[in-house]
Amino acid sequence: MATKMKSVFFCQNCxxxxxxxxxQCPGCKEWNTFTExxxxxxxxxxxxxxxxxxxxxxxxxxxxxxxxxxxxxxDTHINELNRVLGGGLVRGSLxxxxxxxxxxxxxxxxxxxRNLSLDGKKMLYISGEESLKQIKIRANRIGQxxxxxxxxxxxxxxxxESVIERTKPEIVIIxxxxxxxxxxxxxxxGSVSQVRESTGVLLRIAKSLNITVFIIGHVTxxxxxxxxxxxxxxxxxxLYFEGDRHASYRVLRSIKNRFGSTNxxxxxxxxxxxxxxxxxxxxxxxxxxPENASGSIVTCSVEGTRPILLEIQALVCRTNFGFPRRQAxxxxxNKVNLLMAVLEKRLHLQLSDQDAYINLAGGxxxxxxxxxxxxxxxxxxxxxxxxxxxxxxxxxxxxxxGEVRAVNMVETRVSEAQKLGFKTCIVPxxxxxxxxxxxxxxxIWGVRSVLDAIEMI
Length: 457
Prior knowledge:
Layout: E1 2-11, E2 17-18, E3 34-43, E4 52-53, E5 56-57, E6 73-74, H1 79-85, E7 89-90, E8 94-99, H2 105-118, E9 123-127, H3 132-142, E10 149-153, H4 157-167, E11 171-175, H5 192-209, E12 212-218, E13 237-242, E14 249-257, E15 265-271, E16 274-277, H6 281-285, E17 296-303, E18 306-318, E19 326-329, H7 333-346, E20 354-360, H8 372-384, E21 392-394, E22 397-398, E23 404-405, H9 410-419, E24 424-428, H10 435-438, E25 443-447, H11 450-456
Parallel strand pairs: 8-12, 8-13, 9-10, 9-11, 11-12, 19-20, 21-24, 24-25
Antiparallel strand pairs: 1-2, 1-3, 4-5, 6-7, 13-14, 14-15, 15-16, 17-18, 18-20, 22-23
Helix pairs in contact: 7-8
């Protein structure tokens, strides 16, 4: 067998591979993200017709020969995490937890390790970033740990693999994948080649030994470290932590899940003792809402199967410059420009000389079309300096002609609004049918356009 050494170029953002350097990545369209890395490739001759593994012939199978077993899920005792995972941990799965540094990834998985070790499951926490003393300082804030949870500070994958095969844990946590290195790859730890090869080794361990493996991946804005986007196609589940690390709340979002629904979210609050579940995110997001303030209205967004009520705030004021300023916090900036153009064209509002600031209170980042109607009403309320009644909630998609289109899961949204004491709900006219009978205590207003909603309010 001959060995050849050559260099290839990888995109640090998406992992696109090229034989030469390019200014713009064809995969993710980002600029100046290619880096050169040496790659060792082995060249061997074909063994001829037929194939075998350990002397046994490999034959294809039909679906009727496959035996289906029920998924063996483990309860993490964290309901928000169980929701995002689809009901709990699946044996033999590989899960990626990504997010900005310091947002709470290691803290959450250390809490999971503690809960599962209390159930008698053998846990192995492998850290390549912290020493055992540093981990113990953080663990003392969380609570008491049992002897079923073992810790290992190591970055060499060959040593890690031998320890896993010898101790045979049920669940393994890798913190983080950027610090692991494979001696068979000549590039530095954290590079695209090392991250990809290291994940391949962990994937083989998870599937062959039927061990649940968690890997933590860091994301940096500068793109100097290979992000977890390279790994998304290799793992079974991808979870992302969102939110400002300086704020108290955290949102855990499922981007990919082979064992459950995608786009589910779990809401946590960061406290001194660790991450604490937020059982009612709607009440948490509306806490501190001002009374009788113009430019404020409540809407309902659905993330996965969970409805969340949140406040949309708008501030519209005359610009002091020739070019008005538009700013959006928590939603798409271009969506705000589009909705203001609809209001100016269809409702004849003079907004071309107005600065506009849109904020989703609570720090949530959402781009669901159902927020369109509430944003339009908040903008008009601030522009005319007339407050909207605190008991009104509105949702619906707004088209370019000013019409209000239907959204999904209308009954779930209205039910969540009723639980928090709202009396009036503005919905698309096509979704009004049947709601008045199911919610007799709610005032259901069906509107066909943004103008109809403004006249009703």
